[in-house]
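Progress report, Aim 2. The chain analyzed during this reporting quarter is listed below.
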Amino acid sequence: MSLAKTDFKVKQKIVYPSQGLGVITAIEEKEFKGVKRLYYVVFIEVSDMTVMVPVEKAGELGIRPIVNAEEAQKALDFIGEDFEPNPSDWKLRYQMNLDLLKKGGIIDIAAIVRSLYRRSKIKELPIMERKLYDSAQRLLQDEAAIALKKPKEEIEAIIHEKLEIR
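Predicted structure tokens for the chain:
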């Protein structure tokens, strides 16, 4: 019995916004509370962990394929552009950025990196925002490196250079 259409294939690299970049290592059928479901088995390299995600929940969780080179370049250019600063209330700013991370698009991730980096130049970020910045920056760097077929260190230097433009 075929349960659900799968958007991803085994060995495909994906972005799981709240976790990091991953690779689908398997697609398995499991029974949970009497219901059979298909699950993506995803290995998340940065945390060296494997997670199982119900196939039907993948979109809701923001799981998506790696962007193409053009989209990755747009995101890198985006972090050097002008923008309206986020609210000064860190809790409000944190929630806005967390929502962007959950949306999970590469431009959303670039927006988090850009706004929190600029904010950090005005005032030190609270610890939770610092962690969010580090996660978003790593996610942007890792995805852009794969999409542009460049070493992570080179992408990290490009990100830093674009952030320092202003």
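The mean pLDDT is 91. Residues 57 and 63 are 9 Å apart (CA to CA). These observations will guide the mutagenesis work planned for the next reporting period.
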